[in-house]
Description:
Elements: H1 2-25, E1 51-53, E2 58-60, E3 66-70, E4 81-86, E5 89-93, E6 101-104, E7 112-114, E8 117-120, E9 125-129, E10 132-137
Antiparallel strand pairs: 1-2, 3-4, 3-10, 4-5, 5-6, 7-8, 8-9, 9-10
Amino acid sequence: MKKMFLIMAIAVISCGKKVSQENITSKEPQKETIVGADSDSHGCKASAGYSWSILKKECIRVFEGTKLSHYDDGKSYTTASYVIFDGNKAELFLDTQKESIILERKSEGDSWINGDWQLIPWKGYVLKKGKDILYTGE
């Protein structure tokens, strides 16, 4: 019984020493992560869901805009895209593009256009590039 107690005591003491020696020897500087320090060049905080809007000229949360989903092409997507509107202009935030795209329409009821991009107000919205339907939304 005394031998068992002695063996347990030695084991506890040696483990304790090993842990404290590891703590002493690993005094490497720790990198500090500052929450909310991810501002972009416009001061928008991505961690809070903000992105810069060229159209609005301010930080916005694009997910508060109109959601556009990938057109049913048989693939499965885990991302979404969004469009925001301001007067006769629309700004696209697509998951496939780094920069937003500004579209403009001539009058009420027309499609918003920029080059071969076309946002059509039909049963919600249909976004085409050239002849291809890429996104739909409501």
